[in-house]
Amino acid sequence: MDNVRTRFAPSPTGFMHVGNLRTALYAWLLARSQGGKFILRIEDTDRARLVENAVDVIYATLKRAGLDHDEGPDVGGDCGPYVQSERKPLYAEYAKKLVASGAAYYCFCDKQEEHENSAEGEAPVSQGCPGDCRDLDPAEAGKRVLAGEPFVIRQKIDRSGTSSFSDLVFGDITIENKVLDDQILLKRDGMPTYNFANVVDDHLMGITHVVRGSEYLSSTPKYNLLYRAFGWELPQYVHLPLIMGRDADGNVSKLSKRHGSVSFENLIAEGYLSEAIVNYIALLGWSPKSDREIFSLDELVAAFNLAGLNKSPAVFDYDKLRWMNAEHIKALPVENFAELSLPFSGLAGTPLEAKYPAIAALLQARTEKLTDIPEKIAFFRELPEYDTELFCHQKSKSTPETAKTTLAELLPKFSALPDWNRDAIASLLKEYAEAKQVKVGQPMWAARIAVSGQAVTPGGPGEIMEILGKAESLRRMELALAKLG
Q1: How far apart are CA 295 and CA 299, in angstroms?
Q2: Residue 125: what pLDDT?
Q3: Catalytic residue set
């Protein structure tokens, strides 16, 4: 593909839905895999739905996801401005050209305009003329415009016959023209609708491949009629399958908040790594040639091809995302994991922060989401209440009675231990087990329960006691003995 130019054109109406982010990712991957350009355009024509600071959310999300753009509002380019509200006079000029050629007309019907869905990934709202403005004499319509009568400009669609186009994912599509209506191109306030602005902008910005959701398939013939009315070359279309969600009863429907977090921001807040989120959504509608599932962004660029895109809807599986997140966490250098996870740990700003690198080393292989961490390591900050039945462990033949004896005999040995580190602690426990002719698991279980009060911990007694320190470990063992009576 020569001179590939793709674009992501979000509407600043709030958070970044994973469907929107997937659209951006595939457009970016297509451009990067072909040595092309990726353009960011802000489509803010629907003024009623704008959310303050939403543009900043778009920038932050793309940056965190690693999707850099070659042209856009913040980096400039030869095709700017890249914010649609700043291009308003341009749309009026092109809309009037369509009126002059007979491909559009002035509509004066007294009808409240519906808000259109302008964000990529949302279905566009189509509106038909409620009156007979379509058949007005152009000269008469011109006089009413000059007289200051409010108007919109509508596309004039020939309802006879069919319209066909080819999509790189769904193949050849044919739609009967009678189902198409005369959509609004220019609203009463002079702002364009999404359906009109994206055609004008895609042409003027040289977009070669339009990547968007499959909900736009039915609207594409109207876009193509606009391209042909202007005498412009059609872009290539890449329509993406829907992303579905499954509820607790197993019912599948379009992904929404009732299925769980659906925004990039919320998934990050829940402890998912941006690399894992991007990796996962890349596979929601695209398949590599192999069974491989774990990819870095650079590896996705190398593997991406349009032939791997699927027609069938993809179901967002939170369990699969959790597994993939754990795999990405395991692959991190331990110092990177420590830095990323510290804000989630609850230990920042506490005396244990200095020991967090050692705690992180224990956690890394046992962490699926960063938000799981506080519960796993709460015992480091404070010994929880626990029942003496926790000292029971069939495999190591540990009971509250054996634990009481073991801890009473270990306490003076630990008190006399000159080097307080995991290796020295492990050696002492092993020597004790050999002397008592019991499995080493028995004293290890007793010591670990005593110092943690938890059946499951990241790390064994040596690692935990090294982090807690000698004084705190001995204190907790004395508390356990008192609890055992």
Answers
A1: 6
A2: 44
A3: 257
